[in-house]
Each structure stands twice: as structure tokens, then as C-alpha cells.
């Protein structure tokens, strides 16, 4: 009779281990389904990827740098024209 309670506890432990495995499997399936649904939703929304965003951001930074450079060159040219007009 000494094996009765031990066997019951062993069976219960096995049942709990199996239940935990089933729960993990269900969790993975839910995560996979959610991820697939989210990807489908985002693809329908025409959202840009991080890489595309970073590329456009870099292009904008370079364009702004070029604008600043051209503005300072223009200011220098205008200053030179004003100085030459004053000499005449």
C-alpha cells in the first residue's frame, strides 16, 4: 500500500507536465496566428519598412545639408555683388 500515494503523485506530476506542454504548444500556435494576422494587416496598410524609412531619412539629411551649403554660397555671392555695386 506504500506505492498507492506515490503512484498517484507520480501520475499527477506527469499530468501536470503534459498539461504544461500542451499549454506551451497552444501559446506558440496563438503567437504564430497573431503574427500572421498582424503581417497581413500591415501589408494591406501600405506601411514602409524601417530600412526604407532610414534610407529616405538619410536622403533628407543630405538634401538639407546641400541646401544649407547652397544658401551660404548664395549669400557670399550676393555680398560680393553688393560690394562691387558700391565700388561703382
TrEMBL record:
Pfam families noted in UniProt: BMFP (PF04380)
Keyword Coiled coil attached: yes
Keywords: Coiled coil
Coiled coil: 50-80
Protein name in the entry: Accessory factor UbiK family protein
Organism: Roseibium sediminicola
Lineage of source species: Bacteria, Pseudomonadati, Pseudomonadota, Alphaproteobacteria, Hyphomicrobiales
Amino acid at each position: 500500500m506504500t506505492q498507492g500515494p506515490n503512484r498517484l503523485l507520480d501520475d499527477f506530476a506527469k499530468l501536470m507536465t503534459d498539461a504544461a506542454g500542451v499549454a506551451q504548444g497552444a501559446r506558440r500556435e496563438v503567437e504564430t496566428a497573431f503574427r500572421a494576422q498582424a503581417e497581413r494587416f500591415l501589408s494591406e496598410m501600405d506601411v514602409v519598412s524601417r530600412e526604407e524609412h532610414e534610407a529616405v531619412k538619410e536622403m533628407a539629411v543630405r538634401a538639407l545639408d546641400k541646401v544649407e551649403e547652397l544658401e551660404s554660397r548664395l549669400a557670399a555671392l550676393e555680398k560680393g555683388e553688393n560690394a562691387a555695386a558700391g565700388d561703382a
